[in-house]
Specification:
Helices cover about 65% and strands about 5% of the residues. The longest helix has about 35 residues, at about 265-300.
Length: about 900
């Protein structure tokens, strides 16, 4: 800047003080009225965009591929995945049907409900989806059970069952079932009945080889909710309805069934809840810590009030700008309020500490206010420009989430500067604080805090050099976490369910999807995918047409003939007629069998029967009958439904593409004839290298392959590129700006030194504390350049006034402003570290740690290295930064 510019700045400030600030009540009234209108506008126009897919530019190739997939199969977009888990297949099926029926009645909040393996089609043709070997084994088992089924069809009661148990112990009775499994379940039922616990024996597990797992005790419901994007939480009403339906469905014998929700809608909903709640708490904590810091710095309630009033006005105006310029906050910029407290407070701290210093020197309140305006105006304006550059550096990048944060936060710095030179001095003028005399203040100063970084400059330089070398070595071990799931609160239901599904290859959502224009292309893609070492299997619509249908249908036909008419009109269990005599008779037969053949399962059953019968004898007749009836229900209640399922499955018929259910066909071939080809990974998808290899291999088959792994990896690549671009822009533009103002390379490097070192140390620290860079915290380093450059400017300003090594450096208003201003910013960012959202927390930790390191480098390292520049003379020169920032 030229002297003419300096004079113009001083004249402008003096005119402002005399003509505007001299009417503080009018200025504050005007400001409050404007802020009221802005607040009203913000409340009606500022929304929150929770769609993480829109955090990156939609024009990116992988985003185009994702949109292409969603357009081809829209039923898979914006869905809620419900995982229903029961102890038995019957339990899971009953819960599934109740929940589905309840959701289908909520048309105003649930668009559609889809169950992948449910319905009349699968009830009738389910056996065809077994392998030929599995079907042969099942046919043999059911054929052996035919006498058992036939006799129970005549007497489906507790008496009939235990009579059969007794006959089964005699190998000559024609019953060839493996009774160990049946006896083990009977043992569990007896113990539950004695203890009064609910229990339900699963005949599907016993008769049809359906033990547990996906499609048996674990079932999926895919619900497409009605989303209200005008609401703060778009899925809130739909999820409330789902919760009500689940609560109403899981009663009685289904009380121990669990239903867990995940999917993109649920993940985004819980993330929005977590971030909004935690950000509000972080804001309160931030304000509390800032209050303590400002009290230590100011020792004046009036200055504290002036600061917070100014921050409040600035925050309202900044949010108004966000509503006008962007229209919404995203999952990163939603933390803007907490960030503004720290950034805006730094300006007020410098202003108030300078004012306090001047009044302690004996200046009148008006003179102190005028001199504060002139002495801090240039430096704070320069700090605003450099800090805004660090934030605006993200605007040209494809990382729209941080680009929007840059627009809002960068402009808010200008707003904060404006309120610092309007609202803050107006409040101070109306409420001038009383300061202690300068002599009293000096008594509290320690000689150690005045100038020790210059006194111990040489050892500080040595230590800094060593730490820099160690940090450079650690940079080779810096890691990046590409998975956005790891940024969310790990204790939320959606995240826990997502990670639970990820543990199984059959339920893992980390699959890849390609689109084929024809059946031939789909088959070709499937074959090529399955030839890859990283692909476990590929799936198309054609995989839902069973193989070896002729042989399987023949087996099913033979089985139907063997089982005969016993399956028709199978009776429900007898009610109220269960007697103790059948149990006692079976118990006697069991003891005889144990005498000849000591079987562990039968021995446990015998011991349980001893206790159960003894307990029955001690009960009154009514309680005894109730216990027996409960035992009968737990053993036989599910048998009729299993028989009906078996009977239905024996009606299977040949399957082709046209006989597949319509909703299934539409999920694998849309109305335009586009086929979905899905590739399932062979390796662990929690490993970044495995994901890279999986994607690269799949791209050899289809360069436009899409789905979650591609979104995760390509998003991380774009974030890293955005970081590199923003870092380079911030560093380059700030360096050129400082060079243009200072007109001295060494002075420019001196100001940049704390930023470079703090960035280096921060990156190295991520290795030591095992905190990888991720989508959220990677913005820390470019922001440190924008926010941390202020400290270097102010300290360089002060160093030009030191006349000797005994000069007053750390006790000056600049140093105190740097210390307290940065400290409040650290507290603001640091409060985010205690949020449960891991992405926000990691961003808060890195920004707080980075600013702390910047503060140390500015107050300690910069002066130590400045000794090389300023010694032996520490006198001000006309071409230094002091003449460009303003006179003290």
């Amino acid at each position: 800047m030229s002297n003419t510019t300096d004079n113009l700045l001083v004249k402008t400030i003096l005119w402002w003080e005399e003509n505007i600030l001299n009417r503080p009540w009018w200025l504050l009234a005007f400001t409050v009225i404007i802020s009221g209108f802005v607040f009203h506008y913000t409340a009606n126009n500022l929304t929150v965009n929770t769609n993480t897919a829109e955090m990156l530019s939609p024009e990116l190739p992988f985003q185009q591929d994702r949109q292409r997939l969603e357009k081809a199969f829209p039923q898979d977009a914006n869905t809620i995945l419900m995982l229903v888990e029961g102890k038995t297949p019957e339990q899971a099926t009953d819960a599934l049907q109740r929940i589905t029926s309840g959701l289908q009645q909520q048309k105003d909040q649930i668009r559609s409900v889809y169950i992948p393996d449910e319905g009349a089609f699968f009830d009738r043709n389910g056996l065809l989806y077994l392998s030929l070997k599995e079907l042969q084994d099942l046919s043999t088992k059911l054929a052996n059970a035919q006498p058992f089924i036939g006799r129970l069809s005549q007497d489906n009661s507790l008496n009939g069952l235990f009579e059969l148990f007794g006959q089964a112990l005699d190998a000559s009775n024609g019953i060839e079932l493996d009774m160990n499994a049946v006896f083990s379940k009977a043992d569990e039922a007896l113990q539950a009945a004695q203890q009064g616990r609910p229990y339900q024996l699963s005949w599907q597990q016993l008769m049809m080889d359906r033990s547990s797992g996906l499609g048996v005790t674990k079932r999926f419901i895919i619900a497409k909710p009605v989303l209200d994007f005008q609401a703060f939480l778009p899925a809130e009403k739909s999820l409330a309805v789902i919760d009500q339906v689940i609560a109403a469905s899981l009663t009685g014998d289904l009380a121990d069934v669990s239903v867990r929700l995940t999917g993109e809608v649920m993940l985004e909903h819980e993330e929005m809840q977590t971030v909004s709640e935690d950000t509000a708490i972080a804001g309160i904590v931030s304000m509390f810590l800032v209050c303590i810091t400002l009290w230590i710095a100011y020792r004046s309630f009036k200055l504290m009030f002036a600061t917070f009033f100014t921050l409040t006005i600035g925050l309202i105006l900044s949010l108004g700008f966000a509503a006008f310029a962007v229209g919404h906050l995203n999952m990163i910029s939603i933390a803007f309020g907490v960030l503004f407290i720290g950034m805006g407070d730094a300006y007020s701290s410098h202003f108030c500490l300078r004012y306090r210093e001047l009044t302690l020197r004996g200046e009148s309140p008006r003179d102190a206010l005028r001199d504060t305006l002139t002495s801090t105006g240039g430096s704070l304006a320069l700090c605003t420009v450099t800090a805004a550059i660090g934030l605006f550096a993200f605007i040209p990048t494809n990382y729209l989430g941080v680009s929007e944060l840059g627009i809002i936060a960068g402009t808010s710095l200008v707003i904060a500067l404006s309120t610092t030179f309007t609202v803050l001095p107006a409040v101070i003028k109306i409420m001038p604080p009383k300061m202690r005399k300068q002599e009293d203040s000096r008594k509290t100063r320690s000689k150690l805090t005045s100038n020790w970084p210059l006194v111990y400059a040489r050892p500080i330089r040595w230590v800094t050099g060593i730490l820099a070398v160690v940090s450079l070595a650690l940079l080779t071990r810096v890691s990046i976490d590409f998975n956005p799931i790891n940024l969310r609160d790990p204790d939320t239901e959606s995240v826990k369910t997502f990670k639970y599904l990820l543990q199984s290859k059959d339920t893992s959502p980390m699959t890849l999807t390609s689109l084929a224009a024809s059946a031939a292309e789909a088959r070709d893609m499937e074959a090529r995918f399955e030839s890859l070492n990283t692909v476990r299997k590929a799936v198309t619509l054609f995989d839902f047409i069973p193989e070896n249908q002729d042989a399987k249908l023949a087996l099913i036909e033979d089985l139907a003939l063997i089982l005969g008419p016993e399956l028709d009109n199978f009776p429900e269990p007898g009610e109220g007629h269960a007697g103790i005599e059948s149990l006692e008779k079976f118990h006697a037969i069991l003891k005889q069998r144990l005498a000849a053949d000591n079987n562990d399962v039968m021995a446990r059953l015998d011991a349980t029967l001893d206790g159960f019968l003894a307990a029955l004898q001690s009960l009154d007749p009514e309680a005894r009958q109730t216990t027996l009836n409960r035992l009968e229900a737990s053993l036989l209640q599910t048998l009729p439904s299993t028989i009906r399922l078996l009977q239905n499955s024996l009606q299977a018929s040949e399957i082709d593409l046209e006989t597949l259910p319509k909703d299934m066909r539409e999920r694998w071939r849309n109305q335009d004839g586009v086929y979905r080809v899905q590739a399932l990974p062979k390796k662990d998808m929690n490993d970044l290298e495995n994901i890279r290899e999986f994607i690269l291999d799949a791209q050899q088959v289809d360069p436009r392959v899409s789905d979650l792994p591609v979104s995760f990896l390509e998003s991380m690549n774009e974030v890293i590129l955005a970081f590199q671009q923003a870092f380079a822009v911030a560093f380059g533009v700030i360096a050129l700006l400082l060079l243009a103002i200072m007109r001295n390379v060494k002075d420019t490097l001196l100001v940049l030194l704390p930023l470079l070192l703090a960035s280096l140390f921060t990156a190295a620290l991520t290795v030591l504390i095992d905190m990888p860079f991720n989508f959220a915290n990677i913005i820390a380093l470019p922001l440190l350049f924008g926010l941390g450059v202020d400290s270097g400017i102010h300290m360089a300003h002060r160093l030009h006034y030191l006349k000797s090594n005994n000069g007053d450096m750390l006790s000056s208003s600049e140093a105190q402003g740097v210390f307290y201003g940065t400290l409040t910013t650290i507290f603001s960012f640091g409060s985010l570290a205690f949020t449960s959202h891991l992405g926000t927390a990691s961003m808060g930790i890195l920004l707080a740690v980075g600013l702390l390191l910047t503060l140390v480098c500015a107050l300690v390292v910069l002066p130590a290295f400045s000794a090389l520049r300023f010694q032996p003379r520490l006198t001000p020169t006309p071409d230094r930064i002091v003449t460009k920032i303003g006179n003290e």
